[in-house]
């Protein structure tokens, strides 16, 4: 997308045309140049850019929200398309994390003399981030927030398979959650009553009771056949796999008998089998062939139990 500024006696207006900007990773024909050619980024149709009037630099802001889909797996930043007159002033907002501040202040800063430069070269680049350093950074951040210079946007920390953490990790999380700068923490697990790692204590979901008491537990329910078919159809669309309704219904039955994860994992080998048979889309016969090749967790456990005398224990 190319943005031109048109000067007028009354106002400035913006004219956008669907052409590509030279020097941003595109050839004259509009074809993308490989990244190995030395381009940091590329601009394509749907990108939102801005041009600095003084330097003429062209910078990419993000993708237009008109190109966003409901089930987009890309980590793109979608921004609204600018409207109205050209902005004469620009407010720069810099997003930094607490870890960025910790890492920046952990690096040793020396002088410009020969001894200082030699010392910096001999010291390792990575320096340990101590608790004292974190406390000093927290004081500075809190002061900036009180003065209105900075705004705290809580992040989200998602920990899957939380029952794999040991007591030391849970103790650290319990103490970190008391801080005013702590993020929103989401735990996920599929365990019931089990032992907390590193102890002989049994607890719901493998989480200590004192930490569990501070959590809000979200009630979840198993997926029904129609919901499984809908999820499988979305997954097939994201992976650009063609599959008919009969095959989706068959995968939904497999998901009910085994698990939804196993049914999703059968899409990729089913697509390979379909292409080997000369078809672009997956049919039920392809999935039946794939099911004869791969076992799910329940079938595997049942087979091991029936034939345990044939395995080394």
Automatic annotation (TrEMBL):
It is found in: Nucleus. Residues 231-295 form the RuvB-like AAA-lid domain. InterPro entries: P-loop_NTPase (IPR027417), RuvB-like (IPR027238), RuvB-like_C (IPR041048), TIP49_P-loop (IPR010339). It is an enzyme of class 3 (hydrolase). GO terms for cellular component: nucleus. GO terms for molecular function: ATP binding; DNA helicase activity; hydrolase activity. Residues 42-223 form the TIP49 P-loop domain. Its main location: nucleus. The keyword NADP does not apply. Its EC number is 3.6.4.12. Keywords: ATP-binding, Helicase, Hydrolase, Nucleotide-binding, Nucleus, Transcription, Transcription regulation. It catalyses: ATP + H2O = ADP + phosphate + H(+). Belongs to the RuvB family. This is RuvB-like helicase. It comes from Ambrosia artemisiifolia.
